Structures are given as C-alpha cells and as structure tokens.
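Design job #97: recover the sequence.
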C-alpha cells in the first residue's frame, strides 16, 4: 500500500503560480501528476522516474516543472503562467507492486495509487 497526500491547491488569477506537493508513505520509481475536470477523462500532466527522468503534456510544457525530493518522499509540481484552462482537480499518482516502467509514462492506466486530489482554479 502507498498513501499519497496532496497539498498546495488553491485559486489564482491567470498568469499566477502555484506549487503542489504530494507526500508519499514510501518511495516509488514512477510518480506523476494528473488532472481531471468533470465530464472529461483524467489526463497526464507531468510524470517522473527516479530523480530526474520527466515527461510533460504539450499543454503544460515550458510552464510546469515536476520534481521530487527522494529523501522526503515528496513530489512537487511547480505551475507557472497559469491559464484558466488549467483549472481542474489535480491528483498525485504512483506505480507500485507492478514493476517499474522504464520511462515516465503519462498514461493513467500505468499508475495504481492515487491521492485524494487538490483543486486548482485559475480565473481570467
């Protein structure tokens, strides 16, 4: 079992910044951030393997940065230049007990542990 607890969501104006954090109960090789709006499928935002292998959705590349502190078992998502279309519930995800994926996959099907989510709202 892996417990994931997110924090850092909130409301900002367009162009603003937020940093999300996710504290995990244990280390997992594959972790990531996903987001979902009502009526749409959950989409991969940014994922990471080990300490620095990363992948980003095209819509956030250049604006968001994923990182992790392995000692603290904490995953981060620095979100800059936020846009109204970034408004969503953001979820932290981890892959465990399945064997690691050798690349930072953005598919939600490749992760089997999820946090409770943290809301991000960006107003224009």
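Job complete. Output follows.
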């Amino acid at each position: 079992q892996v417990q994931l607890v997110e924090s850092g969501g909130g409301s900002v104006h367009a162009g603003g910044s937020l940093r999300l954090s996710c504290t995990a109960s244990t280390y997992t090789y594959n972790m990531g951030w996903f987001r979902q709006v009502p009526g749409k499928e959950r989409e991969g935002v940014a994922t990471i393997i080990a300490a620095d292998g990363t992948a980003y959705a095209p819509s956030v590349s250049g604006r968001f940065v994923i990182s992790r502190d392995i000692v603290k078992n904490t995953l981060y998502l620095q979100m800059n230049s936020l846009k109204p279309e970034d408004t969503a519930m953001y979820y932290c995800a981890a892959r465990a007990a399945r064997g690691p994926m050798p690349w930072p996959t953005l598919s939600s099907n490749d992760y089997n542990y999820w946090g409770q989510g943290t809301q991000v709202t960006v107003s224009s």
